[in-house]
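dumping this here before i forget
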Amino acid sequence: MNNEIVSQVSEYYSEKLNQYGETPRGVDWNGAESQLLRFKQLMRLVNDDKSFSINDIGCGYGAFYEYLSTVNAAVEYCGIDVSADMVKAAQRRFSHCNNARFIHANTPDVLADYSVASGIFNVKFANKETDWLAYILSTLSQMDKFSAKGFAFNCLTAFSDTERMKDNLYYADPCYLFQYCKTQFSRNVALLHDYNLFEFTIIVRKS
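structure:
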């Protein structure tokens, strides 16, 4: 089932990139402002670390790496994406950066201090909710495996306004995922649901 989902995700985001280019809409976000807000929540994982390594799952055209350069972080970055077109775009944009690499895969290939995933759990297509949740939990297990200090991810929230919810999107239960992360990965888990978007971010810090 995961292989089928990965294929769907790859095709979908390659099409978005072809349609909108290397922009927030090219990775299915409404605009740069909300994209930046999400990045700020994810970076709460890192705290005050000025030097770290990070895996970016679903890196797209490299927008999160571009953001990292604005916060003056000394980072060893690896972007991972299932869309070959996205990876090629990111490699082209940042070919001059010797602290960043981008790979076409659905899991990291090295252990990093941290891992992040932004937006990759939102579009479930026509998959059953049970299958999509299983895909999310499988991905979280991989993030845990390849993260030495912790990981963070975001999801659309089940507390969204009913009239705005769409059938092809997945609205996760933040309480369930909080409990799952607490019991499966670490005692140190934070749920961020206070930044005025119809979503939440979960941060998992390892002891």
